Amino acid sequence: MLESEDVPSRPVKRTNSSSWMINIVRTVRFKHDALKDHGYWYLKSSEWSTQFPDSNGPNQSPINLVSKTAVYDPKFKEKLLSISYSSSRETDFLNNGQTVVIYPKSRNDTSVRQEQAVRSVITGGPLDDDEYELAEIRFHWGRVSFSYGDPIPLLFGDVF
């Protein structure tokens, strides 16, 4: 069972504090005790850099996109980003009133035939030789009152 987890507050610059937003990323944790110590959940995310030094840099959430400081990197032209998308007829949904989570199943998960798995994956570009599979899609809404550690992306320092 999944449950949203509140984290301590961090002020976020915004134009209207009563504005509403939809956010694809939201903090979630498993209630099951066997999984509570896994480092890849959002539990104690402010302490991740002690266990995972790579998470202590510019490549983690939240991000603030500012076009004036954007730098073109020609190496990304060498290996194009590739997105393979598979539609999913069987999908699980979770709605707790402020977050909707969609868990798509790959065609191999739902088929009784032994066929090649058709998955939604992204590779190439800045991802080196790694492949990332779509596991879930999150939509979060509500009044803007974000707290420290919330993975809220910004555009020019503003919530969008």
From TrEMBL:
List, alphabetically, the Pfam families matched: Carb_anhydrase (PF00194)
What sequence ranges are listed for the domain Alpha-carbonic anhydrase?
39-160
Q: Looking at its record, which EC class is this enzyme?
A: lyase
Taxonomy, superkingdom? Eukaryota
What species is this protein from? Mytilus edulis (Blue mussel)
Tell me what this protein is called.
CA
EC identifiers of the protein = 4.2.1.1
Indicate where this protein is primarily found: secreted
InterPro entries in alphabetical order: CA_dom, CA_dom_sf, Carbonic_anhydrase_a-class
Q: Which GO terms describe its cellular component?
A: extracellular region
Record GO terms (molecular function): carbonate dehydratase activity; zinc ion binding
User: Which UniProt keyword terms apply here?
Assistant: Lyase, Secreted
The family classification in the record reads: Belongs to the alpha-carbonic anhydrase family.
Cellular compartments annotated: Secreted
